[in-house]
Amino acid sequence: MSQKLIISPIVKTLVFSKVPEKVRDWIDRINRDWVFRRIIPAHFAAPINASRSELLAAFGFLDDVLGERYVTRPSLSLLFTSLLGKATSYFPPDDMKTLSSLDEFLVSVGAVKNVSGRKR
Fold it and tell me: How many domains, the chain?
């Protein structure tokens, strides 16, 4: 995990997956408007040397959530990001059971909205 961009499973599941279009737009704006070589994460040692493609890779899970209806990058970049993104944001399903159950519960009781339109 050292010197890698990893999206926290809690933030990914309980926050970013609820508004994936807004998160994708935010990441795309950062990549379009900012020139950077390092990122200061909220946790862990900082700064981390990271490029635009590494930032896109960390948020590659959005491609799975959004599907083909929200492709904004060229296909070669999308392929690269998807391959790296799966490696940097994959968590084994058995490790995610409790968090997934909590997410489903929060949606079912109306504590959070499933605004992404994903089926449960």
Answer: 1
Domain annotation covers residue 119: no
pTM above 0.70, yes or no: yes
Within the chain, where are the H helices? 9-14, 20-33, 52-58, 61-66, 75-89, 93-108
Tokens of 35: 């020139």
Residue 64 pLDDT grade (very low, low, confident, very high; cuts 50, 70, 90): confident
pLDDT band at 60 (very low <50, low <70, confident <90, very high): confident
The kind and range of the H/E element at 49 are strand 48-49
The answer to whether 48 and 3 have CB atoms below 8 angstroms apart is: yes
DSSP 69-101: GG--S-HHHHHHHHHHHHHHH---HHHHHHHHH
